[in-house]
Amino acid sequence: MSFFKKTVLISLVACLSAISCLQSQNETDVTVIKGATVFDGNGSSIADGVIVTKDGIIDCIGEKSGCSIPNNSKVIDAKGKFITPGLVDAHMHFFQTAFFDSRPDAMDINSVYPISEVIAYQRRNPQRYYDSYLCSGVTAVYDVGGMSWSIDLQKQAENNPKAPHVAAAGPLLTPVPGAPFDLPSDKVLVHLNSKEAGVKTVQYLSDLGSTGIKFWQIRANDPEYMSYIEAAAEEIEKKGNMMIAHATTLEQAKAALRNGTKLLVHSVENTDVDEEFIELALQNETYYNPTLIVGSGYTLARRAAADIEAFEIVDPNGCVDQKTRTLLETASQFKDHPRMTENVKSRLMEFDSETDRVSEQQLRNLKRLHDSGVKVVVGTDAGNPGTLHGVSIYDEMEAMQSAGISPEDMIVIATKNGAESMRRGDDFGTLEKGKFANLIILNSDPSQDISNMRSITHTMIKGTLMKVDEIVEK
Ligand SMILES: [Zn+2]
After folding, report:
1. Where along the chain do its domains lie?
2. Number of CB atoms found within 10 A of residue 128's CB
3. What is the CA angle 420-463-406, rounded to 5?
4. C-alpha angle 133-384-134 in degrees, rounded to nearest 5
5. 1-31 pLDDT, tens per residue?
6. How many angstroms does the Cα of residue 133 sit away from the middle of ligand 1?
7. Is 18-85+430-470 CATH 2.30.40.10?
8. Ligand 1 centre from 92 Cα, in Å?
9. 313 alpha carbon to ligand 1 midpoint, in Å?
10. Cα(469) to centroid of ligand 1, in Å?
């Protein structure tokens, strides 16, 4: 675990005036937040809790009588508020913008937004997304597929006091030759066309420091291709890395589990999960990431592009950066795009955002897996068209709750489980002595309804407390 020295402590809860705020800066590295109802991420809560943070780390957490308050500490009174660990988005992509400019395979708008420029910009400017995530209460993200530069973000973000923790898998292995968003300078997709290609890619990415090796598509009915996956999976084991698989049918998901997959992304969508699947997932200690809202996100972005309905950005704290807003606000410039045939437009017209947002099959499987003890994580797939970095976490959590998962369980799923899935469970994800001081302060009780995560006022990342509506430059 790395430790961060705070230079300036912004603590607007305690600052009654600018003067008292300035006076308290730089005097101490110890912050105490007291009086709130604290959910620790392990499923327990403390009424009238005390959290003492020192040099970015939780030094004590407990009831009023359990932690002594050092003399020189900055004390924040959070009476009547609610605290949880920082949220974890266990599935996002830094190379993607939340519009089609980074997904030419879905709709090619290269003539307006050249893909090479888009990707170069994404590479240079992760901070705008770091800000959006922190503003939304997300203090750790897992990029489960991108160019190899995404792997470098892990260290950069770790050493950046104003960034969430980042884990990244880097390029994906795929059976699809010459996939459409290959770039000459770098690739998102590596063609898995032999055992040797699989083994070499695993070695290469593991040596770069990737967290996880992701397979984009499992072809359960193709024994030749599955033998490549097996060879790669053995190498993953040797390298001490872990396997991530994109699987949307029961057959694919089981084949992925038989090869030791630790993180399954996207739901089983074609049928009900069965006992065999559940047993495999439990044996493997696999995390299941349902990505419930990303599919309809595409539809909403397409509707905006077709000029059917403007894309609605729900963002009272101003977490979404201007560039992303502009992309979505000007989407209708593509209403005459060759992909926007009359057929496509009439199908887009039929979509009802009230009833068509998530599929019943996905919800049913999620509930069964959660009830069976399979560990579930929140992952938005942000960066895909219509799924915004940061703020989309609320939609995803609400969709998961609508499967019938209790809000208390959702707190654990959105914090502890996510941290574990990115192999950082020892460092953060719960509020415990010795872990990073990553937490959020809310006005309303998230154990009553996970929607109350939207009542966030502050995020603490690595010990620095920030008022969320002041994080993103307006
Ligand atoms: Zn994804």
Report:
1. 18-85+430-470, 87-295+353-421
2. 19
3. 45
4. 0
5. 433 333 333 333 333 333 334 334 445 589 9
6. 17
7. yes
8. 6
9. 21
10. 28
